[in-house]
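Exam revision sheet. Question 4 asks you to relate a sequence to its structure. Input first:
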Amino acid sequence: MRAIEIRTPGGPEVLVPAERPQPTAGPGEVLIQVAAAGVNRPDIMQRMGRYPPPPGVSDIPGLEVAGTIAALGDGVTTFAIGDRVCALLAGGGYAEYAVAPAPQVLPVPRGLTFVQASAIPETTFTVWTNVFERGRLSSGETFLVHGGSSGIGTTAIQLAHELGARVFATAGSEEKCAACERLGAEKAFNYRDVDFVAAAKEATGGTGVNLVLHMIGGSYLARNIDVLARDGRLVLIGR
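Answer key, structure tokens:
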């Protein structure tokens, strides 16, 4: 099959086509004929030599794809050959074929193209796990997401808003803040000139927010705790 290799760390020009063996679906996995692959920050970092793949994972970049099921591994009964799907991968998405564990595969939503669907899994799985399963955000609660204009941030804003939470966000410019508000944030705070702790407390009548999602941590830790309501939750992802 054709795949895209990173010949040496560098800019986009180091991504080159190559011939690779077609992977096979093992037990509990599916083989996907890839129609489109998403692009995420880890792909860029891997291309630049700053994100080595985990042991045992393909060196081909790409963490999410959309396409059709080409083969089923033993024990997979939830999909059929020919199904339109999108999937979260540990790597290997920049190729004509990719393998994914069946639990990390979703049907392509009706009305979406493969290109659109290929941008769903990485951020959606991350947000659902961290905001709704670990963070336990529920309808009517207040939620603050930092980096609201990022891939994780835009997904978190839309899902939380759709499920009935009051959503606040931080971003680094007025343009980015406006984009967050168009996606469903009640208010977005420009962290360059606004104290998000004071602003969020004012917006919540002094109580603070029930949940904070932050991708960095570090110097924000004390302020994130300060902005929380009583029994609030702080979820940190990344480092």
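Marking note for examiners. The mean pLDDT is 96.
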